[in-house]
Design the sequence.
């Protein structure tokens, strides 16, 4: 039986491409030999984009077909994440309401998402500026995070390049570190040396152009040594590809652009060390057992978690994961939402999330069902990871990472096989205290931004704050 092709409704994406090209609807219609009214219907999602017209657009304007992959889903995810904000709690807006809006008027949905984004940015900037006594400025780290979030942490060109290099390295024989060192020697005339940490003077990796050497610290474990060496290879051989991808973004700061390029280089290194096809097959075969996958590929627990958030290849998708890394003080040093989890832009995570409990039992995997105020439920695993150098009195960093997905995917995970997935087992958490609308939480550290406080000097409640219901 022939497989039925799903209609392609990508109106907002077609409109954005047309505007980026500086064309009117009439001009695009003339180029594609269709009527202007037909282009209007496609852009309003009242007609699907036919396959022949899709190919004609790609050929006429020199477009990559992946440009149509995101479609209206990006806007839908932004609107869905927006509903977590307490200012919308009284309106009882559901996902179906959002879908109705995107179906009936995608342009208005895009406008609402842009307006809310501007509102959140200005509100957060104002709060931080008042706290710091400054006028605020561009946050380079958030620029880089936003670029990766918009792409859902998936860059197909880098994945393809990573697989090509990984195949070449496997053909060279030997372990990954040795094969990479051989590639440096034969292709770039560079010698790889592993040196003591005191010689490296605090560096994990260094490219000595004068002596034509790649130096790696012996204080790193084997997985980290391999990754650092592959990262240097990615920077050398992927220079043009990295520039091509990062140039697709509009950065207000040079630091934001450089941070993004560094993140993309790490992505490419992960694609070489954990090539997409083999990694995806192993994930499904091992039921996403992170530790087993780490041993199979000679990688670390955190490296595997990172890579699991990138499995978005059409036709070979993995489970859509989100990822978070914190330190013992609750500071967030890495996060990837993958369009799944509505992380707060600033502030820590909810103290009721057992991610914070992992520091009491290092290296033990904790599982938990967590539910946000909007009713969305997720399954997460959390474990501590070790960073820094090996050796007595060497600088070390103990952090905790969480990997999670929507509850509907949990049955595919080995960690959920003996876990109670009923509603009674769900832990009610918030995104962060300032955005959490749960009034009776004893663990609350800050009042929510949109709730009016009631101060009662004569009573001490079990909860830190009490609020007016208005």
Sequence:
């Amino acid at each position: 039986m022939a497989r039925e092709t799903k209609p392609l409704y990508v109106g907002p994406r077609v409109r954005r491409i047309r505007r980026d090209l500086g064309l009117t609807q009439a001009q695009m219609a003339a180029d594609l030999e269709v009527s202007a009214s037909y282009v209007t219907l496609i852009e309003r999602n009242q007609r699907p984009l036919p396959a022949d017209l899709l190919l004609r657009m790609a050929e006429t304007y020199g477009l990559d077909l992946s440009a149509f992959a995101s479609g209206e889903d990006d806007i839908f995810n932004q609107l869905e994440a927006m509903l977590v904000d307490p200012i919308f709690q009284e309106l009882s807006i559901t996902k179906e309401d959002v879908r109705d809006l995107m179906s009936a008027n995608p342009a208005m949905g895009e406008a609402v998402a842009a307006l809310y984004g501007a509102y959140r940015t200005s509100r957060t900037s104002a709060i931080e500026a008042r706290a710091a006594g400054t006028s605020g400025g561009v946050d380079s780290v958030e620029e880089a995070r936003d670029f990766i979030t918009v792409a859902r942490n998936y860059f197909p060109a880098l994945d393809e390049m990573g697989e090509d290099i990984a195949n070449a390295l496997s053909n060279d024989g030997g372990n990954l570190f040795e094969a990479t060192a051989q590639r440096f020697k034969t292709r770039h005339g560079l010698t790889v040396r592993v040196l003591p940490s005191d010689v490296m003077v605090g560096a994990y990796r260094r490219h000595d152009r004068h002596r034509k050497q790649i130096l790696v610290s012996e204080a790193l474990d084997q997985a980290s040594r391999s990754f650092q060496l592959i990262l240097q290879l990615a920077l050398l051989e992927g220079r043009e590809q990295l520039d091509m991808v990062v140039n697709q973004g509009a950065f207000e700061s040079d630091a934001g652009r450089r941070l993004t390029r560094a993140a993309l280089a790490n992505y490419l290194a992960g694609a070489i060390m954990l090539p997409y096809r083999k990694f995806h097959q192993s994930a499904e075969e091992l039921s996403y057992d992170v530790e087993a996958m780490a041993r199979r590929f000679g990688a670390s627990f955190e490296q595997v978690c990172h890579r699991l958030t990138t499995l978005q290849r059409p036709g070979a998708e993995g489970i859509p994961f989100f990822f978070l890394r914190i330190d013992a003080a609750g500071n967030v040093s890495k996060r990837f939402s993958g369009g799944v989890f509505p992380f707060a832009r600033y502030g820590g995570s909810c103290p009721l999330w057992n991610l914070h409990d992992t520091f009491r039992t290092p290296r033990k995997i904790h599982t938990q069902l967590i539910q946000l105020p909007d009713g969305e439920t997720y399954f997460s695993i959390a474990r501590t990871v070790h960073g820094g150098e090996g050796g007595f009195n060497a600088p070390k960093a103990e952090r905790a990472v969480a990997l999670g997905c929507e509850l509907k995917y949990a049955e595919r995970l080995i960690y959920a096989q003996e876990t109670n997935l009923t509603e009674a087992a769900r832990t009610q958490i918030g995104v962060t205290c300032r955005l959490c609308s749960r009034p009776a939480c004893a663990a609350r550290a800050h009042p929510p931004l949109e709730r009016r406080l009631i101060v009662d000097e004569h009573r001490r409640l079990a909860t830190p704050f009490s609020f007016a219901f208005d």
